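Sorry to interrupt, but I need a hand with the structure work. Go ahead and set the record down below:
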Amino acid sequence: MKSVSPRGCAWGFAVGVLLAACVVDVLYAGADGTSVLPTASPVWPILAVLLVGLAAVLWPDERRPERITPQVRTAVPALISALYSVASLVTLKANIFGPGEVLILLCLLFVAVRHCPPRWAWGCGALDVGALLLLPVRYLGPWDADVLGFVAAGLVLVGIFAGLAAYLRTLDYRRTVAVTDTRRSERVAIAADLHDFVAHHVTGILVQTQMARMMAQTQPQELDPVLAGIERAATEALASMRRTVGVLRDTGEEAADRRPVGDLAAIADLTDGFASPIQQVTLRCDPAVSDDLPHEVQAAAFRVVQEALTNIRRHAADAADIEVRLRDDAGRLEVSVADDGRGGTQLPAAAHGGGFGLVGLKERVTALGGELHAGPRDGVGWEVRAVFPAGKS
């Protein structure tokens, strides 16, 4: 049986409350003159207002046409509601409003403040607020003393919804900035690694060239293997640059700290150093995995294991069995780290990290044409898995 997340339950409850409130609005509008409810007004205008508002609030993002922008979503229903209120003043006819329309306008205000572009957020939000404050005038008239009470209550609700939306928008902005900074830092790190790859290959070319010059006079018949080595090192250097340099944009002129570049052999030392008396780390390396992979692929694989083990220590210190696996998957290198932790940790909250390590890791993996997946395992625990195109080019 598929479980329902608490977030899904909360969303379903909110939708149910909104629909129930709209039903109340329709019942108010359709009440007859003998009812304890106010005198009846035509049902179809309020029904049209509610249907447009519900479509704007509940229409799923993935199914909404691109032309239905947040500006259109929040402005059109509010404009229709405001026109209905103005028409009530012009015709001097009382028209009912209820909790459904109030909730819809508050939801639209929330969407306007949080999701509309900055230049539009003020205008769309003001339109939603104006439509909300016009509701009591629709029924009571502009000079009724009770209007002030409704307006005061409306302003309190406006402050709550707009304040919450502005707070969440601020959090979204901060996360966007943090993700951007993380990606930029990771690109700088990739640039440093690229320098190391090229330096490694060029140094090999230089040494073998010097050897070839000496052999040219003493052992000319043995030059062919040396020249082949020079050709192989040059090819690998070009391949490293071609696979990596495309993502090194907009990194500025900041100097990158030189970090040691790990490889597949270093993963064994990494897992041995991570193990503890209460945690067993098992490294399973497929014999089909070649030791002659491109240097940038080996470095990225090392970083995947390093980041995954770091996250286990931060977020799943209760994990007893950790498995690191290197596997050849139809010519591709698959690296996975799985644990059986349930989320227990003894680290202070400040040491848990901001959650951006995987963002930078994904940037590194995709830069090499690979894929990164991180998520819960079947049963208990967590798994990080990366797949790299391991073939040379």
In short: The chain has a mean pLDDT of 77. The chain has ten helices and five strands.
